Amino acid sequence: MAGVQLCEPRRLYNVLNQQRRLPRLAEPGYLCLLDTRTQHEYDDSHIITARRIKQSPSGDYLIPDSEELRCVRYCVVYDCETSSLGHCDCEEEEREKGTRDIHQHSKRILANDFLISLGAGEGTAVRYARSLQQFTRHPVLVLMGGYKRFSACYPFLRTQKILWMPQELDNFQPYPVEILPAKLYMGNYRQACDQQIQKDLKIRAQVNVSEQPAMLFTEKGKLLHISVPDSLEADLFSSFATICDFIDTQLGSGAVLVFSSLGISRSSTATMAYLMRSCRFSLK
């Protein structure tokens, strides 16, 4: 089995905001985000693109199509505020019962969905995730702290929207990737010029490692522009110390965004340099 793992809110935030040519949320088989809370709680607000787990007339929770789960890269489940995998029954007992329970669950079918009986209280996400792990190739992720913690960290990713059309996902505007919680972000030029993003993430300074000037921050000392061409021959190494010192200075007063034109090579190089120099991260 793929297993069950806890997922920090920051990890889900970054999963939601990945992009290639288009946002990765638009890719089939990328993310299956499942909400196990009550219908009222879900309708009030939920995480963007989340689907509420359906229930049978008898109140049993339905497992989504097993073929969909088998192909998905990230399967994330959340409830109100589960904070550990120990909220459900004793883990040793669960391991012993696992094979037998899965066999029983797999025999109960309703309209191409699998049924599972779960309590609606604390730990629902963990118990539900354990029932999904037989269908997935990757570990099922349980959101640590549930919706309560995630929505407190990222209130701008809450919604009441239920149905997302493919074109809407294609046009979804991702936020910068979060490198250090609420402190260091990495993104592209468009994100750096978006005032709403700066407000939502409380960004107070920027490091621009592209040739394009960005003048969103007019306050003196809040913008560092290292003009570097997008070329294999470009010299970014000589500016590492300047970049790192600037970020260290600015983090005391708020979050910092490091960006380049596309937010891929130059910005990631500068960000890795900072993590290795100031945070003592290894290259691995």
From TrEMBL:
Superkingdom of origin: Eukaryota
Positions of the Rhodanese domain: 17-156
BP GO annotations: negative regulation of stress granule assembly; positive regulation of intrinsic apoptotic signaling pathway
Molecular function (Gene Ontology), one example: pseudophosphatase activity
Gene Ontology cellular component terms for the protein in this record: mitochondrion
InterPro entries: Dual-sp_phosphatase_cat-dom (IPR000340), Prot-tyrosine_phosphatase-like (IPR029021), Rhodanese-like_dom (IPR001763), Rhodanese-like_dom_sf (IPR036873), STY_interacting-like (IPR053272)
This protein's name: STYL1 protein
Organism the protein comes from: Piaya cayana (Common squirrel cuckoo)
Upper lineage: Eukaryota, Metazoa, Chordata, Craniata, Vertebrata
